[in-house]
């Protein structure tokens, strides 16, 4: 399917019977995209390339410098050629202009008789428009047939064979494993020669290369190589349609595979709860090509808040698998308690697993921002375990990390259990003891004072401790003047004792402030409201 005419074809049309190519005959095969009538001298900024220019020379015929400048501008713009009507303005083409056109292989066509520029433009434009219409019709027909074939096609090579039937060129498909498939088939001894020729400059206009992208991951590359013709715009468009169909076919296969994997979720849940033996786990990993591993970890993913958009689980699992497999993990999924539970089996050395996992999460978060640019997901990672029959420990610790993040670190979106040091200690102590009595022993006077006077002594105490006793920094963070801070500190000394900033007592008080916040948040988290408990 042609989308342009060559000058050689145009010269055979009726309007050009009394014309002659007086210079630049080497460029007679140039392609014409459109025809313009031009009677001004400053034309360079108005052209896009491959236009055939018609002119009487009225603006430059009696001025050699303007004539030469006009032709040079057309050459610079990569115009297809210049047609000049012989007449009062240009009785003949100067030799200097002929020499310039010959040097640049720029076709210069002279009409020996008066012609109708309107008839020429109408004739050529009607041909070009008709070609465009035919191209669109054939593309539509190609796309419809291809879409029908997608319903029954079982392998991507069938799509590529269909493309080759239309292009009648050499197609080379390079899959994600680096294997090359030649359509039509080529003897082995000739394949290397063809691959080497694809990079040759001489074949620049006869070679196309496009990658097949699915979920931001390259699944293959299509190479098109023509030995006997220049590849046209139609060839490019056919390739685009084929790549879209190929991506749809691959994506459909990925969805089918992902659904099969999700059916394994019951077995995975049992594994997470410690109900699978080493032999059963080994058999499962063997079936999924993950026998060789260096341990594993559980990652939880859920919406950051109830207002966040609903999660497309199938899309997320495809995205997770694509990203984390590139980071050296085998990936398995199940859904528990409205949370996507991801089992990551490390296939590389244990050292560096944390950095690779963090990079994968950052990549996912970058693709999952809401309309305001905020992250819509939370992630929590449990303990790294080896052997894998201990995966329940990672699962339990990931839930604890998620709970701590939701209760105390609401602005965070990603936490490793092993990095939540002080919060883990508080959580552990709360499970075995009622910490309220400990808190009251140290903070009761301050809490009661704030309740009675609607004061901010506890907030002041927390900031003062976090600033290591720096009054200037504390006042700045509280947005109060220094004198107000001095008054509050004096009150704290009267309630807690003048020695509350000594090392051991300060350490305990700072810890109890964190416990108090933890207990308040836990109470709100469990009760579903924002009220704090009263002692």
Q: What key attributes describe this structure?
A:
535 residues; alpha/beta; Udp-n-acetylmuramoylalanyl-d-glutamate--2,6- Diaminopimelate Ligase, Chain: A, domain 1; Beta-Lactamase; Alpha-Beta Plaits; 4 domains; five-stranded mixed β-sheet; 18 helices; 16% strand; disordered C terminus; PucR_dom; PucR_C-HTH_sf; PucR family transcriptional regulator; CdaR-like_regulators
Explain how this protein is built.
With 535 residues, the chain is of the alpha/beta class. It folds into four domains: 5-125, 3-Layer(aba) Sandwich (Udp-n-acetylmuramoylalanyl-d-glutamate--2,6- Diaminopimelate Ligase, Chain: A, domain 1); 155-259, Beta-Lactamase; 265-418, Alpha-Beta Plaits (2-Layer Sandwich), CATH 3.30.70; 433-527, Arc Repressor Mutant, subunit A (Orthogonal Bundle). 49% of the residues lie in helices and 16% in strands. The protein is built from 18 helices and 16 strands. The strands form four sheets. The protein has a five-stranded mixed β-sheet, with helices on both faces. It has a five-stranded mixed β-sheet with strand order 13-14-12-15-16, sandwiched between helices. The protein is elongated.
């Amino acid at each position: 399917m042609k989308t342009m005419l060559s000058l050689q074809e145009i010269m055979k049309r009726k309007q050009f019977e009394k014309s002659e190519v007086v210079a630049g005959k080497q460029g007679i095969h140039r392609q014409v995209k459109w025809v313009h009538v031009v009677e001004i001298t400053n034309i360079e900024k108005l052209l896009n390339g491959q236009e055939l220019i018609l002119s009487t020379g009225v603006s430059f015929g009696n001025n050699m410098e303007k004539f030469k400048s006009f032709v040079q501008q057309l050459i610079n713009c990569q115009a297809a050629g210049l047609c000049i009507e012989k007449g009062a303005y240009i009785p003949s083409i100067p030799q200097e202009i002929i020499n310039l056109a010959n040097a640049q292989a720029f076709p210069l066509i002279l009409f020996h008789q008066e012609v109708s520029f309107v008839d020429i433009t109408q004739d050529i434009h009607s041909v070009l428009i008709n070609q465009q219409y035919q191209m669109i019709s054939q593309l539509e027909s190609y796309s419809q047939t291809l879409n029908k074939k997608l319903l029954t096609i079982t392998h991507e090579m069938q799509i590529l064979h269909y493309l080759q039937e239309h292009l009648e060129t050499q197609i080379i498909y390079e899959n994600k494993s680096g294997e090359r498939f030649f359509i039509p088939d080529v003897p082995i001894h000739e394949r290397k020669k063809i691959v080497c020729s694809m990079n040759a400059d001489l074949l620049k206009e006869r070679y196309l290369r496009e990658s097949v992208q699915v979920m931001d991951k390259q699944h293959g590359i299509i190479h098109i190589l023509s030995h006997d013709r220049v590849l046209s715009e139609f060839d490019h468009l056919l390739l685009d349609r084929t790549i879209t169909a190929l991506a749809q076919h691959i994506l459909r296969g990925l969805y089918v595979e992902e659904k099969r994997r999700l059916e394994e979720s019951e077995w995975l849940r049992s594994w997470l709860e410690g109900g699978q033996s080493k032999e059963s786990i080994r058999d499962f990993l063997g079936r999924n090509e993950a026998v060789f591993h260096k341990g594993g970890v559980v990652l939880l993913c859920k919406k950051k808040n109830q207002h966040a958009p609903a999660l497309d689980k199938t899309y997320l699992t495809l995205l997770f698998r694509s990203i984390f497999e590139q980071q050296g993990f085998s990936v398995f999924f199940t859904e528990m308690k409205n949370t996507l539970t991801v089992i990551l089996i490390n296939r590389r050395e244990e050292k560096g697993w944390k950095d690779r996992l963090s990079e994968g999460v950052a990549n996912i978060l970058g693709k999952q921002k809401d309309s305001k640019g905020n992250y819509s997901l939370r992630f929590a990672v449990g303990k790294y375990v080896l052997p894998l029959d201990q995966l329940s420990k990672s699962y339990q610790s990931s839930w604890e990390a998620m709970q701590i993040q939701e209760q105390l670190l609401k602005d965070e979106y990603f936490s490793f259990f092993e990095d939540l040091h002080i919060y883990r200690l508080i959580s552990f102590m709360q499970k075995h003891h009622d910490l309220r009595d400990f808190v009251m022993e140290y903070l009761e006077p301050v809490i009661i004072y704030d309740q009675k006077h609607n004061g901010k002594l506890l907030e002041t105490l927390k900031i003062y401790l976090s600033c290591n006793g720096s009054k200037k920094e504390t006042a700045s963070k509280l947005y109060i003047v220094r004198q107000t801070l001095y008054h509050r500190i004096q009150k704290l000394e009267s309630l807690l004792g003048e020695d509350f900033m000594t090392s051991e007592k300060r350490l305990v008080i700072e810890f109890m402030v964190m416990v108090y916040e933890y207990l308040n948040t836990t109470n709100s988290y469990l009760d579903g409201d924002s009220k704090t408990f009263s002692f």
